Amino acid sequence: MSDGRLGPIDDVELDMRALMRALGRALPILVPLFLLFAVGLYVGLSFVTPRYTAETKVLIEKGESSITQTGGDTEESRALLDAEGVASQVQLIDSRDLAMTVVAKLQLDKLPEFYATPVSDFINGLLSKVGLGKPSGDSVREERVLQRFAEKLEVYSVDKTRVINISFSSSDPVLAAKVTNTIAEEYLALQREATRVANADATRWLDSQIGALRARVNTAEAKVETFRAESGLFMGGQNNNVSLPQQRLSDLNTEMARLEAARASADAKAEQVRKALAAGSDFDIPEVLDSSLVQRLREQQVSLRAQVAQLSATLLPAHPRIRELNAQLADLDSQVRQAARQVLSSLEGEVATAKAREVEIAADIDRAKVATAQSNGSEVQLRALEREAVAERELLEGYLRRYREATSRQDGDYLPANARVISRAAVPLEPSFPRRLPITAAATVALLLLSLAFVMVRELMSGRALRRVIVEPPEPAEPGLPVDGRMRWSDGGDVRRMMPAAPSFAQPQVLPPDMQDSLRALVDRIVATRSHRLVVTMAEPPAAGRPLAAVALARQLSRRGNRVLLVDLHADGADGAAMAPESERLTGFSNLLAGEVSFAQAIFRDRSSRAHIIPRGTEPLPEGLAGDARLAEILDALDATYDHILLDVDRDMAEALAPTASTIVLVAEALASDPRTLTAHETFTAATKAEILLLIADTAPEGEAPDPKTEAA
């Protein structure tokens, strides 16, 4: 264009009404075709040979009953019942040998279902007659039968149980049930046969081991007796488990203890008698009172005292009769004391005898200790021989016990299997394949979806489902001015938020002249130059509230699929209020700088886009923040995560951060030719080598409705 203006721009969008109309036109043709296809498929499936499936369930458990079980739970029985053991039984049922047994028993190789000569075999037979075909025979026939048998058989274990499910499919329902039950029966028979063979092998092995083990037991026991006789280690005691020297030493110790107790008792009794004699008191001591002489003297004393008491009533103490009786009482007391002295002499004799006997027994104990010490060395060797003999004896007894159990099982034909059938297969009444109704419905629905998708793709490829949209051209650029964009704003109070109305931008100085001049072009420039760290600031202090240009720019960059983070370092915190979730006090950069919160607690998601924001925070920002090492560390950490980081700062901090920025975005409310705008541009040009972009925000009166064309753009 000669005037430098760009013509109208054509854009396209999806026309849902046209797409629905195309589907409506196709349905009258597709529905009869679907119905015809469904009927044909349903009828065609009726000609397919039905396949019936029969199921048998087998429970894996220990076959031994509580009566015949010889021991507790062994490692073998526990291994049988765990998950690996059940899986092993599944493989056994699905084995080739079991399949061959079932095929031979039911003569399945004679049924056409299992052996039907295919066309390839017929051709191979013709070629074999002229010497060109592959050899064929019974082995090939057997392999084919086993292969088809395996294809029809399915064996699996039920989850979290010890139940194995055996299913077999066949065109004959009776044959399917018969084969399934036969597999279970042959599996149990195979287990019983394995048990019988194991018992027979164990019996033969035990029989051969028992003879040799008996000879070893006899030899070991003979060695024990020979060594005992040579060493004189004969056994004594009640249980014949103590050697004679040890038994003698034990008896001497017992006798010594008895003598010491008797001596101590006699010595104590003698001391009591001695004290009684010294005191001249009554001899109320059991040893004295037990003497027959003392008892008679006591009786006489009692009789005389009775006479004295009787005569004292009529006679005086000096009477001859009274004096005679008192003399007799004194004589009796002397006789009692003499008897007590005799008892004391007897007790002292017992003490002396006990002491002499203790000396003799002590000498005997010393001699017995010497003899016992001499026999201990031989006893060590004897115990070793006895342990060997006992081990051989226990091994022999264990072998004999197991041999008797094995022979009793073999003779009694008791062969339990470690499984039992809990559900036998019944003749199925309904075929498992084909299920005509579900298959027909699924195929019809799938064809319907594919047909609708084909119609939609055809409409989109032809362009009939797309409509053109004409976008009004932007305002012409004013050449010679370092302007990168202009945008309209509406006054929303103290803080004016960016409105998407009537975007009209001048031609960027660094962009080609034929590129559309808009905010989209500004974002394209930032993305093309891969500007990583952008400093957004006002070219001049706003008159009443600042426009949220950084918020608009962050949202536009995020809609391009970029990871964008806006850091609000303004004192008013307007960016956080516009983007972050509604909250009275949001933690943010000041809290992160102070170490009070983590990155995850300071970063918020924009309510209108996928951009992230770090609000200003609840704490005041420190002086000289631009030169703070902590700020550099935080920004370096954020650089590794985000594609674009926008630092929305005031003019002073912007000049301090300019050397480290990739791009400087100046937001101006005045024209690009305004001296204040030019002064700001020159200031930042001198402060940094980064690219400087100018964004002009045109203010609109409060409540002014945007142009409909602008909204559409």
Task: Write the CATH fold name of one domain.
Answer: Rossmann fold
What is the CATH superfamily classification of one domain? P-loop containing nucleotide triphosphate hydrolases
Question: Order of strands in the sheet with the most strands?
Answer: 9-16-15-10-14-11-13-12
Beta fraction: 5-15%
Mean pLDDT: 75
- In the CATH scheme, the class of one domain would be Alpha Beta
* Record field, number of beta strands: 16
Backbone structural class: alpha/beta
CA-based shape: flat
Oligomer: single chain
CATH architecture of one domain: 3-Layer(aba) Sandwich
Contiguous uncertain segments of 5+ residues: 1-10, 469-518, 699-713
Gyration radius, rounded: 59 Å
Main sheet overview: 8 strands, mixed
Protein name: Exopolysaccharide transport protein family
Keywords: Coiled coil, Membrane, Transmembrane, Transmembrane helix
GO molecular function: protein tyrosine kinase activity
Secondary-structure topology with pairs:
Layout: E1 9-14, H1 16-46, E2 52-60, H2 75-81, H3 83-93, H4 96-106, H5 119-129, H6 138-152, E3 153-157, E4 163-170, H7 173-231, E5 235-236, E6 242-243, H8 244-279, H9 286-289, H10 292-311, H11 320-412, E7 419-423, H12 436-462, E8 466-471, E9 485-490, H13 519-528, E10 533-538, H14 549-559, E11 564-568, H15 574-579, H16 589-593, H17 599-602, E12 604-605, E13 612-614, H18 629-639, E14 644-648, H19 651-657, E15 663-668, H20 675-687, E16 691-700, H21 708-712
Parallel strand pairs: 9-16, 10-14, 10-15, 11-13, 11-14, 15-16
Antiparallel strand pairs: 1-8, 2-4, 2-7, 3-4, 5-6, 12-13
